[in-house]
Design goal:
Blueprint (H helix, E strand, L loop, with lengths): L5 E4 L4 E6 L8 E9 L14 E2 L1 E5 L12 E6 L1 H5 L4 E11 L2 E6 L2 E5 L7
Parallel strand pairs: 1-9
Antiparallel strand pairs: 2-6, 3-4, 3-7, 5-6, 7-8, 7-9
Length: 119
């Protein structure tokens, strides 16, 4: 099965929802960064972050469904994507509770040039 990678234009905001499926969600923390992809494999911990997402905890992943699981809404600001070079990146996301990693997420993102420039 072929998985299509996400494409974002430089200078746009990108959001990703990370569900918390186990553990005490109120004690969870999340960190999500974007790293330059050197291959199809996820970049290692030693690879520098090209940009960092701002992760905000929400008690319900679907505001219309109060029984939906808690989550983190991770946002990569437009100002952060503006500074990225065109190319392929991988996300490196981790949700931790009491120092234990309970979830990880990796996604391939292709950053493309904007068609128009401001001004």
């Amino acid at each position: 099965m072929m998985v299509e990678q996400v494409k974002i234009k430089r200078g746009t905001t990108y959001r990703r929802l990370l569900l918390i499926r186990s553990g005490d969600a109120s004690a969870a923390s999340c960190r999500m960064v974007l790293k330059r992809a050197a291959s199809n494999a996820a970049p290692g911990d030693e690879a520098p972050a090209a940009a960092e997402f701002v992760c905000v905890y929400v008690t319900n992943s679907d505001p219309a469904d109060l029984t939906s699981p808690p989550a983190f809404v991770c946002t990569l600001a437009a100002s952060a994507t503006e500074d990225l070079a065109v190319g392929t990146y991988k996300t490196d996301a981790r949700i931790e509770i009491a120092g234990d990693v309970i979830a990880t997420a990796t996604e391939t993102i292709e950053v493309i040039e904007r068609v128009t420039e401001d001004g």
